[in-house]
Amino acid sequence: MSNVSFPGAQTIPGTKATLGSLLRRPYEYLQAKVYGELSARGFPDIRPAHSSLLRYIRPEGSRVVDLAERAQITKQSMAYLVGDLEGLGYVTVVPDPDDGRAKRVMLTTRGQAVWTTLIELSLAAEVNCAELIGADDMATLRRILQNLSQALETQGSGAS
Amino acid sequence: MSNVSFPGAQTIPGTKATLGSLLRRPYEYLQAKVYGELSARGFPDIRPAHSSLLRYIRPEGSRVVDLAERAQITKQSMAYLVGDLEGLGYVTVVPDPDDGRAKRVMLTTRGQAVWTTLIELSLAAEVNCAELIGADDMATLRRILQNLSQALETQGSGAS
DNA sequence: TATAAATGGACAGATAGTCTGTCTAAATAA
DNA sequence: TTATTTAGACAGACTATCTGTCCATTTATA
């Protein structure tokens, strides 16, 4: 079930797939799978763009600027997502007790439900992938990607 | 040079990073790097969206429907990209000799230049990553991702 | 303490890149 | 020969992003 089809393979014969395309394909597969199933689970109004908020919101609530900074988008864009999810009933916005300018974005009960479901489905999709390539390779894949992410992070903020 | 900064790390403490996020981070890094440098190389008007066309166009030229099918977008969306790149001088559109309804999208000289440069920069970005994690791990990463892609492809089009 | 600077967010407007729906012309099948 | 399918064009809509400007509040400074 949840038959996610797959884009065409090779462009120019004799050209090796770029690392980017090797990363992109499974990523897009996972995203399609997770958001497809999310819809089937009763959250059809949650779209991939919303993940910029859902990924970074904290249980105590988060301010728009913080969410924007973590998601690497402008605060206006994040405000748009907040407004959208607020209208859909997934978040509420309350005044920040510590800062009169600020507001806190908080998950509603439904928001928490979608958050949990997203984690659940992501995990399930990963298990599915692990079945395809084997648990050992999945562990290795995770380890290497984790290393790479960390190395890029330090490279990005650190040395020239 | 080309200091690409990196989004925040963890959401909820005690939550493992999803496979999706592990794939996404390096992918977005690569994309930012490649398109940033592409701009510096004299192609500032090429945007990531154009890659849907550039990735799949063939040297003999390709029809819009074929490009759309490979890129997994509607033909209208692909037509928009074709029109855009045509206006920018990267592709030309000629009538298909074998089919009076169809047209062939072909890379201009400048289009071929950008194509070559994209491959070059992608390769360079991969080498950069390989330096960070080591050549062995990069080879392993490639192997596993290739397996995964292929497995997902056959799963997607094949068994339920 | 009074004022200047920085910060969190709101509002307005623009744009890119995607979609659906409808249409024509040409090719293919019945 | 007629019906169906296919390639693409056109119109319209919408999502998710951006820039620019503004206000209110907080923080730093003179």
From TrEMBL, chains A, B:
<dbReference type="InterPro" id="IPR036388">
    <property type="entry name" value="WH-like_DNA-bd_sf"/>
</dbReference>
<dbReference type="InterPro" id="IPR000835">
    <property type="entry name" value="HTH_MarR-typ"/>
</dbReference>
<dbReference type="InterPro" id="IPR039422">
    <property type="entry name" value="MarR/SlyA-like"/>
</dbReference>
<keyword id="KW-0238">DNA-binding</keyword>
<dbReference type="Pfam" id="PF12802">
    <property type="entry name" value="MarR_2"/>
</dbReference>
<protein>
    <submittedName>
        <fullName>MarR family winged helix-turn-helix transcriptional regulator</fullName>
    </submittedName>
</protein>
<feature type="domain" description="HTH marR-type">
    <location>
        <begin position="16"/>
        <end position="150"/>
    </location>
</feature>
<dbReference type="InterPro" id="IPR036390">
    <property type="entry name" value="WH_DNA-bd_sf"/>
</dbReference>
<keyword id="KW-0805">Transcription regulation</keyword>
<dbReference type="InterPro" id="IPR023187">
    <property type="entry name" value="Tscrpt_reg_MarR-type_CS"/>
</dbReference>
<keyword id="KW-0804">Transcription</keyword>
